[in-house]
């Protein structure tokens, strides 16, 4: 019953957000990375439910990232053009399904002008690092339950931010 109530609150809050400039109680992390690439947000995809899976491409940088919200995959961010291989190494594709009642509770990001690596933490495990840790800076962020991400991407993930509701 409590997950139903939580889901109703999330839907009401996200619907309210899309119609007003108000905000639900939440924490949007700072942006990790640079200003290149095009802006993206998965905010509208969060209406499909909690994050249930993650796909990443791990090269010398975080090459691409994609989240499944409920049963619906959001768009892939990164590796956005056919000529990306001229400048970047695509890397290994990895995929992680979250177990029932498992959710993303944190991340450690290595970054500079781009997102060099990310290591996702759930309430049950730590996923392997994706990318290299050669960034100028490293930062860990956490919240109650990750709702969606936004950032910038082109051939790679240039920047990422995390949205953590506080309820």
Automatic annotation (TrEMBL):
Sorted UniProt keywords: Lectin, Signal
Pfam families: Jacalin
Signal peptide: 1-22
MF term (GO), any: carbohydrate binding
Residue ranges annotated for the Jacalin-type lectin domain, each copy included: 26-166
Classification via SMART domains: Jacalin
InterPro entries: Jacalin-like_lectin_dom (IPR001229), Jacalin-like_lectin_dom_sf (IPR036404), PolyBind_ProtTraffic (IPR052321)
Ranges in a coiled coil: none
Xref: PANTHER family: OS11G0524900 PROTEIN (PTHR33589), ZYMOGEN GRANULE MEMBRANE PROTEIN 16-LIKE (PTHR33589:SF3)
Protein name as it appears in the record: Jacalin-related lectin
Organism: Pteria penguin (Winged pearl oyster)
């Amino acid at each position: 019953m409590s997950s139903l109530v939580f889901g109703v609150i999330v839907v009401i809050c996200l619907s309210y957000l899309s119609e007003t400039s108000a905000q639900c109680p939440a924490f949007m992390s700072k942006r990790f990375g640079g200003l290149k690439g095009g802006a993206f947000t998965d905010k509208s995809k969060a209406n499909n439910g909690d994050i249930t899976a993650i796909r990443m491409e791990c090269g010398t940088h975080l090459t691409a990232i994609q989240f499944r919200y409920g049963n619906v995959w959001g768009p892939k961010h990164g590796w956005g053009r056919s000529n990306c291989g001229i400048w970047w190494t695509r890397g290994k594709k990895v995929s992680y399904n979250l177990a029932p009642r498992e959710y993303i509770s944190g991340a450690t990001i290595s970054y500079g002008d781009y997102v060099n690596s990310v290591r996702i933490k759930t309430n049950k495990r730590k996923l392997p690092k994706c990318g290299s840790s050669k960034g100028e800076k490293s930062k860990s962020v956490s919240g109650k339950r990750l709702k969606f991400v936004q950032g910038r991407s082109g051939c790679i993930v240039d920047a990422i931010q995390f949205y953590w509701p506080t309820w």
